[in-house]
Amino acid sequence: MIFYMDEAGVGLLPSVESAYARKGNTPVIAHKCQYKHLCVISAISDTGRMRWALHPDAFKGTSIVQFLENILAAVARKILVIWDGRASTRGGGQVFPLLVKE
Fold first, then answer.
1. Residue 59 burial by CB count (10 A; 0-12/13-18/19+): exposed, middle or buried?
2. What is the pLDDT of residues 17-76, one digit of tens each?
3. Cβ atoms within 10 Å of 68's Cβ, excluding its own
4. What are 45's strand-pairing partners?
5. Model's pTM, two decimal places?
6. DSSP-derived pairing of the beta strands 80-83 and 50-55
7. CB of 19 closer than 8 Å to CB of 9
8. Secondary structure of the chain in the HEC alphabet?
9. Which of 6, 18, 67, 102 lies most in the core, judged by the most C-beta atoms within 10 Å?
10. 55-64, long-range: CB within 8 Å, 24+ apart, which pairs?
11. Which residues pair with 83 in a beta bridge?
12. How many Cβ atoms are within 10 Å of 91's Cβ, its own excluded?
């Protein structure tokens, strides 16, 4: 089974397209939010099955391996993961262990 996988971060700060202030002053936008974020990882199979997970911090090697192990447990067959080639998803040169469910 083929899974297409990616991760993203979601911030909780308000998005503002424009702000106004008097000439010579910098616009200040007051908000009551604190800077918090949430990371999500998801995988969609070629048959339409979707698996996802939320994480309070950035996904690192151990949390990614745990996510892949959860997919293996759910589908009970070998999987092929297609993932983007960004440097942040390569684990800093770390090679993820081969996960094979017998």
1. buried
2. 677 888 998 888 776 766 677 889 999 999 999 999 998 888 777 888 889 889 999 988
3. 20
4. 3
5. 0.65
6. unpaired
7. no
8. CEEEEEEEEEECCCCCCCCCCCCCCCCCCCCCCCCCEEEEEEEEECCCCEEEEEECCCCCHHHHHHHHHHHHHHHCCCCEEEECCCHHHCCCCCCCCCCCCC
9. 67
10. 58/9, 59/7, 60/91, 61/91, 61/94, 61/96, 64/91, 64/96
11. 5
12. 15
Instruction: Provide φ and ψ at 75, rounded to 5°.
Output: -95, -20
* Domain locations along the chain: 2-89
Q: How many CB atoms lie within 10 A of CB 71?
A: 20
Q: What six digits make up the tokens of 53?
A: 């997970």
What are the tokens at 97? Answer: 């262990």
**Structural tokens at position 34:** 């604190």
Q: What is the pLDDT of residues 69-83, one digit of tens each?
A: 899 999 888 888 888
Dihedral sign of CA atoms 69, 71, 77, 82 in order: negative
